[in-house]
Amino acid sequence: MKRLYTGLLALFLFSSGLNARAQQLYLDLGDELTEYPKVEWIKGQGLTKFDERKIYIIELWATWCKPCIAVMPHLNELHQKFKDKNVVIIAQNVMEDDKQKVEEFVKQQGDGLNYQVAYSGAAGSDFDRRWVKAAGVSAIPATFVVQHNKLVWQTTPYMLNEKVLQLLVDGEFSIEAAKKLADGQP
Amino acid sequence: MLLLSSVGMSISADAQRPFTVKGQLDKGINGKIYLRYTKHGSPQRDSALIHNGAFLFKGIIGDPSYSTLERKPDDTQSFYLEGTSINVSGSGELNSAKITGGSAQADYIELMSKYKVLREQMDSVKARVEAYKTASNDPALQQAEAMLKELSVKADAVDPAFIQAKPDSYVAFNMWRNKHRWVVDASIEADFKRFSERIQRSEEGKKMASKIATAKRLGAGQVAPDFTLKDTQGNDVSLSSFKGKNVLLYFWTSNFIRSESNSFNLGRIGRKFKDRNFKVLTVYYDNVNAGTDQLDYWKGLVKPFEGTWSSVSDIGGLDHTSGPVSPVAKAYALSTTEIPIAYLIGPDGKIIARNLPLHQEDLALDIEKLLK
Q1: Neighbours of B155 (CB within 10 A)
Q2: Does pLDDT of B4 surpass 50?
Q3: pTM (2 decimals)?
Q4: CA distance A44 to chain B (A)
Q5: Distance CA B283, CA B208 (A)
Q6: DSSP B254-306
Q7: Segments of chain B assigned E as strands
Q8: Which of B90-104, B159-173, B234-248, B354-368 has the lowest mean pLDDT?
């Protein structure tokens, strides 16, 4: 329901034209990405800029999103296997405004959530405007893959596995090739 | 053949038959009972009184229909109703009574018992899996999990086998056509034609034949029917004015859950190909729920896509009960179950692809391969 609500809110904002910051931002495949939006880092050292030598897997999640939580062990495993291969996984919290709840959740996970975690705040935040709305994200979990300072894929965590990450590490990524390797299983 | 008319439709006598549902339950049962079924595509709800366990329904029905008898929320039974005498009998409540009569119900009972057998087998193996997990009995666990997988494969095979074995069964036909509720591809015709003449000529059979005919008429290689509608400024816009460009033609409404994400994707596609000979042309039909000015509502919806889309409206062209009304809606055979739909039309005005998967986030990549 929250997802639909957020989507409807976006539609309202788009169609009302009343939003003073009506500069319509879009985030499309192939767009250049140099800066990470202003967020609060709950776990890990965080980042402000994308390093063009690294591969970033940005996973959108919320404490109320059960499938997002269910897929965390899978992502944690990928993190363990690829953290020394220049792959940075970020659990980017979105679509909720209770920061304490998020912090408590992360604490509870302990080592079960070993990759970086950031909190963006609710609708209207920097991350929300420049990534969530701009990329038309209406449902989570949602995944952004960034390599060489470019958005190379917008997908779901079910499409990521070791073979797909290895493809990225080997510099041989294409969406077509990745789709062939992905099992699509949660 | 006697022709009867109903709601403007001619239905021949052999497509409409009387039915009776005669029931005898525990003699101590009294009260009300409901019969839900589908007649000529519309849901019906008849009621009757139970007196000393006995009840009787009488009516007329077209194609045999999946139906439910309801006495109380926790005392119901589903069965297949057809134009014949149906018998409901038992010494207890409705949910333990036996329902017989007609070949559709016989098929339904057969199908349900196949499901039941497999379900019981799976439940028993699942219980063993849990027990072995608790006991950490790995070899036995592995064996049980393999068995579960095997049963799962068997369960998945029940429906296709049933469809294959019963070409003259309404139960099998409904099972098959349930997978093709929305826009269909002409390639399903081979499977449709495997059903008996009787099934193909039934009400739902004829509707399916019509959907398949539409898929052929508006399939790849066919000329996209031309039309002229007005844009947000009130100017005429014709499909043929885009000849020389690839056109993504999108017929849409806004009252469905994927409406926004479809629109967003189309915006993305428009932006991606803005330097190519490509145009997104959207044709809007009403939102049944909107009480406000439809035209203004539509203009608001398309405003963010100014410059990326060409937008026209055909408000009133599609009636959500009776179907296509306007020439455009008729030419493209739009209906509530076949909208939204997007076509890719080539620079020569011929259809390249029908029913593009708009919800697919990387649709742009597939489109790129199709552009001419």
Answers
A1: 15
A2: no
A3: 0.80
A4: 30
A5: 25
A6: S-STTHHHHHHHHHHHHHHTTTSSEEEEEEE---TT--S-HHHHHHHHHGGGB
A7: 3-6, 9-12, 17-24, 31-39, 42-50, 54-61, 65-72, 75-81, 85-89, 98-100, 228-231, 236-238, 246-252, 278-284, 309-313, 318-319, 323-324, 341-345, 351-354
A8: B354-368
Q: Write the CB contacts of B366 (distance below 8 Å, at least 6 apart in sequence).
A: B357, B360
What span, in angstroms and rounded, lies between the C-alpha atoms of B124 and B116?
A: 12
pLDDT of B41: 84
Cα–Cα dist B371/B273, whole Å: 10
How far A81 CA sits from the closest chain B CA (Å)? 27
Whether B286 and A163 have beta carbons less than 8 Å apart is answered as no
Q: Tell me which chain B residues have a C-beta less than 8 angstroms from the C-beta of A29.
A: 272, 362, 364
A15 vs B261, B271, B303: nearest CB: B303
Per CB-CB distance under 8 Å, the chain A contacts of B365 are 175-176
Q: How far is CA B109 from the centre of its chain?
A: 23
* Range with the poorest average pLDDT among A138-147, B166-175, B315-324: B315-324
- Whether the CA torsion B308, B312, B318, B319 is positive or negative: it is positive
**CB contact (8 A) between residue B300 and residue A29:** no
- Tokens representing A16 are 């009302």
Paired tokens of B12: 């021949």
For this complex, say whether ipTM is above 0.90: no
pLDDT attached to residue B52: 97
Residue listed under structure tokens 């800066």: A35
> Side chain identity at B18, as an amino acid letter?
P
With CA atoms as reference, the chain B residue closest to A176 would be: B365
| Contact predicate B231/B239, CB 8 Å | no
Query: pLDDT by residue (tens digit) across A134-176?
Result: 999 989 999 999 999 999 999 999 999 999 999 999 999 999 9
Task: For residues B87 and B23, give the distance between their C-alpha atoms in angstroms, rounded to a whole number.
Answer: 6
In this predicted model, what pLDDT tens digit does every residue of B182-224 receive, in sequence order? 999 999 999 999 999 999 999 999 999 999 999 999 999 999 9
Nearest to A11 among B260, B362, B364 (CB): B260
Quote the minimal CA–CA distance from B77 to chain A in Å: 32
The predicted pLDDT at position A5 comes to 53
| 8 Å CB contact of B261 and A16 | no
Give me the pLDDT at residue B196, please. 97
